[in-house]
Write a structure and sequence with these properties.
Layout (H helix, E strand, L loop, with lengths): L3 E10 L2 E11 L4 E5 L6 H9 L6 E6 L2 E2 L11 E3 L11 H5 L1 H5 L4 H14 L15 H13 L5 E5 L7 H18 L2 E6 L2 H7 L2 E6 L2 E6 L1 H6 L4 H6 L4 E9 L5 E5 L4 E4 L9 E6 L4 E4 L3 E10 L3 E8 L4 E7 L11 E6 L5 E4 L5 H5 L3
Parallel strand pairs: 3-8, 3-9, 6-7, 7-8
Antiparallel strand pairs: 1-2, 1-4, 4-5, 9-10, 11-12, 11-14, 12-13, 14-20, 15-19, 16-17, 16-19, 17-18
Helix pairs in contact: 4-5
The structure holds adenosine-5'-diphosphate (ADP) and magnesium ion (MG).
Adenosine-5'-diphosphate (ADP) binds next to strand 2 and helix 1.
Length: 361
């Protein structure tokens, strides 16, 4: 069964370290997303799993077997490329039947396989058309059907939805997860889109500059990120710079740059430590007291209003208020802000500065 194990895998191009010493186990049947900013090494990593390129160091195991020297055709996997690569002169059914055809399966079986997977992606009525006659979303589905038609239990997807309109992309996400779970397939899905990663994955592997920053379930990474890069990259967050003023098992006191104070429930650092507190916009509330701030912008978001403020502490703070409360706020207005103490996460202040610690480069 296709458990994928990476052991100390690196890929170097001269001085460029595209992937830097990654060890990772993707369990049989698991849906894992490799997430990270453009250029962080995602495609390089998935290509090494596929066998399109060879690691400079380290080993790739699929189903317990060392893949060194094993060609892509012999790895028993389905691969969807970053750019849709359908055969333009073959019709949809023949594109999907590609794998059974190169395996010399009987003609009836080829046709039945094409039918089965086109039905799964709901494109049976397009089977006689050429790829050029389909829209982007349909081409993407054909490409997925072709990968599934290999019959392999390991599916590698490189930005499979990135070329699509936002609406189609959202619909396809759910189709994708439903399909592969239904078929019991192990999936490695590469994306730079954190929302996409959150909505399809059992587990997210967050990469930065060739390395794994952090991995965990979408909920773990959103609610309990272990570092500032994760807190910033997955979802949105506010950072408050300060020091631990009083450390206690219950509530700890944080002092901000203007001397104002904030209480947080979980502070693992000693008194005097320079820290950064991360609080997501949905956990900041206007109140009758708290951090003094001035509203700098108000944006209608459909289901809520996003209010941006500048606090006296120099921290920029964003918060969301219910649609019905939108008329209560104006640009330039002074407000007091409270944060949900339990939702506040405290990080040690990075030596290189916040901007550098969360930078995507
Ligand atoms: P991602 O898919 O996350 O956007 P890639 O894996 O494509 O990132 O690239 C990671 C880094 O490796 C980039 O800096 C890229 O320029 C470099 N890189 C990728 N492929 C090659 C190559 N064939 N030769 C030289 N550098 C490469
Ligand atoms: Mg890529």
């Amino acid at each position: 069964m296709p458990e994928v194990v990476l052991r100390g895998v690196s890929k170097k191009y001269g001085k460029v370290v595209a992937v830097d010493d990654i060890s990772l186990t993707i369990k049989d049947g698991e849906y894992v997303t490799i997430l990270g900013p453009s250029g962080c090494g995602k495609t390089t990593l998935i290509r090494m799993i596929a066998g399109i390129i060879q690691p400079t160091e380290g080993q790739v195991f699929i189903g317990g077997k060392d893949m060194k020297g094993v060609e892509i055709e012999d790895r028993d996997l389905g691969y969807v490329f970053q750019n849709i690569a359908l055969f333009p002169n073959l019709n949809v059914a023949d594109n999907v039947a590609y794998s059974p055809r190169v395996k010399d399966r009987p003609a009836e079986e080829q046709a039945a396989t094409a039918k089965k997977y086109l039905e799964l992606v709901k494109l049976l009525d397009r089977m006689s058309m050429l790829p050029g006659e389909l829209c982007g979303g349909e081409q993407q589905k054909v490409s997925l059907a072709r990968a599934l038609a290999t019959g392999s239990k390991l599916l590698l997807l490189d930005e499979p939805l990135s070329a699509l309109d936002a609406r189609v992309r959202m619909d396809l996400r759910y189709d994708l997860r439903r399909l592969v779970k239904q078929l019991g397939i192990t999936t490695v899905h590469v994306t730079h889109d954190q929302e996409e990663a959150m909505s399809v994955s059992d587990r997210i592997v967050l990469m930065r500059k060739g390395s794994v920053m952090e991995m965990g379930s979408p909920e773990q990474l959103y609610t309990k990120p272990q570092n500032m890069f994760t807190a910033n990259f997955i979802g949105e967050t506010n950072f408050f710079e300060g020091w631990v003023k009083e450390r206690a098992d219950g509530l700890s006191k944080i002092e901000l740059r203007d001397g104002s104070e904030m209480s947080v429930a979980n502070c693992p650092f000693d008194k005097g430590t320079a820290i950064v507190v991360s609080v997501r916009p949905e956990f900041v509330f206007p109140f009758t007291s708290g951090l003094h701030a001035k509203i700098t912008s108000i944006t209608y978001m459909g289901t809520y209003w996003r209010i941006s403020t500048e606090a006296d502490s120099e921290d920029e703070v964003e918060l969301d208020v219910p649609v019905a409360d939108g008329s209560l706020y104006k640009i330039g207005q002074e407000v007091y802000l409270m944060v949900n103490r339990k939702a506040a996460i405290v990080f040690p202040r990075p030596r290189e500065g916040i901007a550098e610690a969360i930078s995507l480069e």
